[in-house]
Design a protein that fits this description.
The structure holds 2 protein chains of 2 kinds.
Chain A lengths: L1 H5 L48 H26 L3 H25 L18 H25 L3 H27 L4 H4 L5 H20 L6 H25 L4 H4 L1 H24 L4 H31 L1 H30 L1
Helix pairs in contact in A: 2-3, 2-5, 2-7, 2-11, 3-4, 3-7, 4-5, 5-7, 7-8, 7-11, 8-10, 10-11
Chain B lengths: L36 E6 L8 H10 L25 E9 L50 E9 L7 H5 L5 E3 L5 E3 L10 H4 L6 E2 L6 E2 L5 H5 L5 H5 L5 E5 H17 L6 E3 L12 E5 L19 H28 L9
The chains are: A mainly alpha, B alpha+beta.
The complex binds iron/sulfur cluster (2 copies).
One iron/sulfur cluster (SF4) binds next to loops of chain B.
Family (chain A): Belongs to the NrfD family.
Membrane topology (chain A): Multi-pass membrane protein
Subcellular location (chain A): Cell membrane
């Protein structure tokens, strides 16, 4: 933890400059003498503010949104292919998940009674605004799908609602990645291309896990396949994300985030393998695999959340990549200038 | 009622990148046709008196937010936040051998600008208001402690991430080109907090809503300058039309360079930078990160179109993967209707 270190009283010329290397002599046209990953800061204080969100509320919201959204797709597939009990169970699960996720979102507001202000405007530049509208459209669809499945009434309305929820569900599962990435948080913004794929993989794993846990084994073949695809995607995308992050990837590998993300991988892969090998024959194995997949997905969300917080709390992750970007731009400009000169001469 | 806007509250013009606009053009506020105003904080003349902090707290009736000692030089304020809208940073630097570096005499500098004379032995830079650039010389000739003081504030970015991501429209662009939170609209979602690339805006713990510098919106409305600029005794904080301030700042940097202060540089003045230029920009005497400022901030919403694209593709791949799972199940002979 950096804050323990940085809260110590000390002078800027000591601790405030981690690994400081004053460039000697002239500042203009100087050689690049600052070794990588050395950086200066103001008493080790964070440059940006970490999100004030509660992990339980917002990482929980990411998880539940994924579970609901992915679940609606599996429910629709089960509905279409006549896997009636899985379809019903998944519709109920999605309704429960989306209700809980909305509750988590409202709970996290500084002024919960003003939740309705979210629907005051529609702003494509605000993923939270887009998400609120998405939730407002998806929630009723998921509710109608579940209600009709449970009561057995209005089957045509139920089919329509199931279809609508299945179309909106994937958006609900992936937009939360944009919600996180559309910030100045280095561990999130840095992977703004990869995060949506990680989040849908995680959502697929969670909903496949739920389907394995609540559906009868004779209906669970699609869930087993989905779990396998999700696990492969989860591992591949995580690796791509860490590669993209460069030095910021430390926040994904170390500390609480590292533990959570490693656990997530183990649970997700373990769950998918268990489902593939034993999930068809053994109800107990299917339930265990499902539980592992659900837990793995939750760990992914809480892990990514923790990585974001860690990357915001240490100025290193803000300063070093920006410095490198500046130095790279400078080097490029200099090369271009030299090239132009050579051409002339 | 739903008011469909593209990024601003009721009073503001469209702000931002993703909405197609290019933010506020230099100088003019496109909606109101008024001149865009801002701050130029010239840290080379800041004496660290904190009059700006006090004036801000007083005028805006900002609550107390901690009285602890930080151990960070004379800075017991710590950082900008919900209840700190001006923050004076104090940096004490021990500098090694004076080879090639600038040294300003403690009481020099009445000689006016740009008159560096005598073989690279620079004069103190003359400043408006008569204060001097601060270089404390300790023990005779070998001055090795340098103070940097800087009054930080919300940058009122041209492309303001806080405003872009605010889902309620509480944050809006005023007719002066500044960025302000409407306290009666904010629902405390906290999205603006991690979105700001400078770590400025914050929620008040007991209140839940987000607060930050308004550039004294009320005073601007009455034709007054903001309280901090009014209170600053050295004109380190200068308020005015942004164009004018930029011109003045460019002159000031030249003046300092001529006087041998080669480390003087402007921060946030460039309309081509990652946030389209700051409405509140600075003259610094060291790298931005030494003052706790990000060296190359970029408005996060610059990448939002790419993010939405990837999210769309990801959503479709979720649909596709689940579809494929059902097809695979059918192909491998499990229709779900068998005996299992
Ligand atoms: S500095 Fe931060 S709070 Fe101020 S306008 Fe820019 S993004 Fe918003
Ligand atoms: S906390 Fe308030 S000002 Fe900040 S984004 Fe949310 S509604 Fe907007």
């Amino acid at each position: 933890m950096t804050s323990a270190e940085s809260s110590l009283p000390r002078r800027a010329d000591e601790g405030g400059r981690h690994g400081r290397h004053r460039r000697g002599g002239r500042r203009r046209g100087e050689q690049l003498m600052v070794p990588k990953a050395e950086f200066q800061s103001y008493y080790g204080r964070p440059v940006i503010k970490p999100p004030s969100w509660e992990a339980r509320d917002i990482a929980g919201y990411f998880f539940l949104g994924g579970l609901a959204g992915g679940g609606s797709v599996l429910a629709a597939g089960a509905h279409l292919t006549g896997r009636a009990s899985t379809a019903k169970a998944m519709k109920v699960s999605s309704l429960a998940a989306v209700s809980l996720s909305a509750a988590a979102l409202v709970h996290d507001l500084g002024v919960p009674s003003r939740f309705y202000n979210m629907l005051r405007v529609a702003k494509p530049t605000s993923p939270m605004s887009v998400g609120s509208w998405l939730l407002a459209a998806y929630g009723p669809a998921a509710g109608a799908a579940a209600a009709t499945a449970v009561t057995g009434r209005l089957p045509r309305t139920g089919a329509l609602a199931t279809g609508a929820a299945a179309l909106l569900g994937p958006a609900l599962a992936s937009y939360t990645a944009v919600l996180a990435a559309d910030t100045a948080v280095p561990a999130w913004h840095g992977v703004h291309r990869e995060l949506p794929y990680l989040f849908v993989a995680s959502a697929t794993a969670a909903s496949a896990g739920m389907a394995l846990a609540v559906g009868p084994t004779r209906e669970n073949a699609p869930a087993r396949w989905a779990a396998g695809l999700a696990a492969v995607a989860d591992v591949a995308v995580s690796q791509a994300a860490e590669r993209r992050l460069g030095m910021v990837a430390q926040t994904w590998r170390e500390g609480r985030a590292g533990t959570l993300l490693k656990t997530a991988k183990a649970l997700t892969v373990g769950g998918a393998v268990t489902a593939a090998v034993l999930g068809r024959r053994s109800r107990i194995a299917a339930v265990a695999a499902g539980a592992a997949l659900l837990a793995g997905s939750a760990c992914t969300r809480f892990g990514v959340f923790a990585a974001g917080t860690a990357s915001a709390e240490d100025p290193k992750y803000t300063v070093v990549p920006q410095r490198e970007r500046l130095e790279a731009a400078k080097a490029k400009a200099e090369t271009a200038a030299t090239a132009a000169e050579t051409e002339k001469g | 009622m739903t008011d469909v806007t593209d990024g601003t509250g009721p009073a503001g013009p469209p702000s931002t990148l993703a909405s197609g606009g290019r933010g506020v053009p230099d100088g003019m506020d496109p909606h109101s046709g008024r001149e865009r105003v801002g701050f130029f904080t010239d840290t080379s003349v800041c004496i660290g008196c904190k009059a700006c902090e006090v004036a801000c707290k007083e005028w805006n009736a900002i609550p107390e937010d901690g009285m602890s000692l930080t151990g960070m030089s004379y800075d017991n304020t710590g950082a900008l936040g919900a209840s700190t809208w001006r923050h004076v940073a104090f940096v004490e630097q021990t500098r090694p051998a004076p080879e090639g570096r600038t040294e300003l005499p403690l009481l020099g500098g009445r000689s006016g600008a740009g008159t560096a004379s005598g073989g690279g032995e620079p004069q103190g830079a003359g400043v408006p208001g008569g204060a001097t650039a601060q270089e404390t010389v300790e023990g005779g000739s070998g001055g090795d402690i340098r103070w940097l003081m800087s009054s930080d504030v919300c940058k009122h970015c041209t492309h303001a991430a806080c405003l872009d991501v605010c889902p309620t429209g509480a944050l809006f662009r005023t007719e002066f080109g500044t960025v302000v939170v409407q306290e009666d609209v904010c629902n405390g979602c906290g999205y603006c907090v991690p979105a700001c690339p400078y770590g400025v805006i914050e929620q008040r713990p007991d209140d839940g809503r987000a607060f930050k510098c308004t550039m004294c919106y009320d005073r601007l409305g009455a034709g007054q300058e903001p309280a901090c600029a009014k209170a600053c005794p050295t004109e380190s904080i200068q308020f005015g039309p942004l164009d004018e301030l930029r011109a003045r700042a460019a002159l000031r940097v030249d003046q300092l360079h001529e006087a041998g202060v080669t480390e003087a540089r402007l921060y946030g003045e460039d309309p081509e930078d990652g946030v389209g230029g700051d409405g509140a920009f600075f003259l610094l005497l060291d790298e931005p990160e030494v003052y706790g400022l990000p060296p190359d901030p970029v408005v996060t919403t610059r990448d939002l179109p790419a993010m939405w694209k990837h999210a769309g593709v990801a959503a479709l791949s979720l649909l596709g993967a689940c579809g494929a799972a059902f097809v695979a199940a059918a192909v491998t002979g499990n229709t779900g209707r068998g005996r299992g």
